[in-house]
Amino acid sequence: LADRLQSTLSKIKGKGKVTEADVKTMMREVRLALLEADVNFKVVKDFIANVKERAVGQEVLKSLTPGQQVIKVVNEELTKLMGGEQSKIAVAKKPPTVVMMVGLQGAGKTTTTGKLANHLRKSYNRKPLLVAADIYRPAAIKQLETLGTQLDMPVFSLGDQVSPVEIAKQAIEKAKEEHHDYVLIDTAGRLHIDESLMGELQQVKDAVNPDEILLVVDAMTGQDAVNVAESFNEQLDITGVVLTKLDGDTRGGAALSVKAVTNTPVKFAGMGEKLDALEPFHPDRMASRILGMGDVLTLIEKAQTTVDEEKARELEKKMRTADITFDDFLDQLSQVRNMGPLDELLGMMPGANKMKGLKNVQVDEKQIGHIEAIVRSMTKAEKENPSILNASRRKRIAKGSGTSIQEVNRLIKQFDEMKKMMKQMSGMTAKGKKKGKLK
Ligand code: GDP
Ligand code: MG
């Protein structure tokens, strides 16, 4: 999907102007790409209609070329399609939070139960109780117990002669006694959806009234995953989806359509067999990855067309020598703001998260007003030569801008960090450009 979309989008990227016909051609390609990726045809149809409407609609942003605008719309709509915001796991008002894991055989329920327990402990310091309620598959109980041992977490089981309903009920009693804040119930699956399975899951649901019913689906099953999700949702009213095996050679189709078809969000992604291979699912990141936005060239292209040409050239020179002033900084800040949220932008730079000191560079959008005030309180000499900013000057600036010395200090530090990063980035730009030409 990524390749296909990217090549389509890159065709249009070079253009200065995009006509309605261009959008049409492009959307035909996007449509094919999505269908090829096994996205549900109805979902594709709606998606294309949405994008078309928006792309040829009114929203002409000065800072973006029409081509970029289409990409932006496709990206936003893809994100929306996958649920928009990241959806977190439920927390019951009164513990324990009861989570029921459901899905077909082999989807990854038992493994995910272990991974989820691990995630809850690691990220939220929770104390989950694992419950073995799959009494049909001979090795199922043992499998969960093994995971429990690996995690050093208790597993509740009553063998395979007691009904899942009874197991689930007793497990919750036990969890209350021993102060577990999460109860993760691993249930049985079948190879295909059938009445007796659904009936039994329904009984467990009625008996324990879970706060969360997570449907585990194998992302590799493509279109089937969507059908499975639809039936489970009809019968059980699932509250979330875990897409497993996204580490494999899967087409992204399931991720795109599950939410659209069931109207339940994908909450986690399984990225491997190990117990730490579970990640919260981020629709925006997934969309960016699908569009190949994690690409320095894209970022640079975007930056270059957004910042107007002359300024860009000037800035590039300054960046190379890292000879920027606070005025440039302010300029930059407003240019960057035109491009979109800062963290999104930084997310596009591969390895950006790992870059040392980036945390200090990241600017909270809310603080931008303060930053502007601080810079405006500087004298011309100070803006051009920040090294003269001694303690008394900083104090004066803090007063003048209605901020605090700490804030002034922080900004000066950020400015220094940014200078350093610009030096690094200008190195990357030069390299990236050469590579791009060779392709
Ligand atoms: P269940 O029948 O739904 O309980 O499925 P299992 O938890 O037993 O998993 C079935 C198989 O899928 C096992 O071999 C797991 O190791 C594997 N599996 C589960 N999740 C993932 C994943 O995210 N990535 C990969 N590569 N394998 C997975
Ligand atoms: Mg299992």
UniProtKB/TrEMBL annotation:
Localization per Swiss-Prot or TrEMBL: Cytoplasm
Catalyzed reactions per annotation: GTP + H2O = GDP + phosphate + H(+)
Classification via Gene3D superfamilies: P-loop containing nucleotide triphosphate hydrolases (3.40.50.300), Signal recognition particle SRP54, nucleotide-binding domain (1.20.120.140), Signal recognition particle, SRP54 subunit, M-domain (1.10.260.30)
GO molecular function, a single term: 7S RNA binding
GO terms of biological process kind: SRP-dependent cotranslational protein targeting to membrane
SRP54-type proteins GTP-binding domain: residues covered: 265-278
Free-text function comment from the UniProt entry: Involved in targeting and insertion of nascent membrane proteins into the cytoplasmic membrane. Binds to the hydrophobic signal sequence of the ribosome-nascent chain (RNC) as it emerges from the ribosomes. The SRP-RNC complex is then targeted to the cytoplasmic membrane where it interacts with the SRP receptor FtsY. Interaction with FtsY leads to the transfer of the RNC complex to the Sec translocase for insertion into the membrane, the hydrolysis of GTP by both Ffh and FtsY, and the dissociation of the SRP-FtsY complex into the individual components.
Protein name: Signal recognition particle protein
Origin organism lineage: Bacteria, Bacillati, Bacillota, Bacilli, Bacillales
